[in-house]
Amino acid sequence: MEIKPIKNEVDYQQALDRLELIFDATKGTKKGDELEILTILIDKYENENFPIGMPDPIEAIKFRMEQMGMKQKDLAELIGFKSRVSEILNKKRKLTLEMIRKISISLHIPTDILIQEYIVE
């Protein structure tokens, strides 16, 4: 395949089709280099044309807690009282800067996700 910028849906589909054909190419080979370049081009096109917004901060915390097998009491040990955790997870109270720092470090959630605005009910 001739490597060229992906400018439209047709180019995108052709790149995906080619990627599928050479997906198992060995790194450092001609096809491996083509695979690497196609991946970069496809990623760029998808980021520009199919952007994915950042997750809601509270949903990100809940998701990460589930992944880590954490309960509310575990989060309470990190940021304060169990009632406060309940208020935060139910969007009755906002995260403080100190909570954001602790959660970011302990749950490995980027601060740019945690500092986003969200509606408190």
Automatic annotation (TrEMBL):
Coiled coil: none
InterPro entries: Antitox_HigA, Cro/C1-type_HTH, Lambda_DNA-bd_dom_sf
Gene3D superfamilies: lambda repressor-like DNA-binding domains
PROSITE patterns the UniProt entry points to: HTH_CROC1
BP-aspect Gene Ontology terms: regulation of DNA-templated transcription
Pfam families reported for this sequence: HTH_3
Annotated HTH cro/C1-type domain residues: 61-114
Molecular function (Gene Ontology), one example: core promoter sequence-specific DNA binding
Protein name, as recorded: HTH-type transcriptional regulator / antitoxin HigA
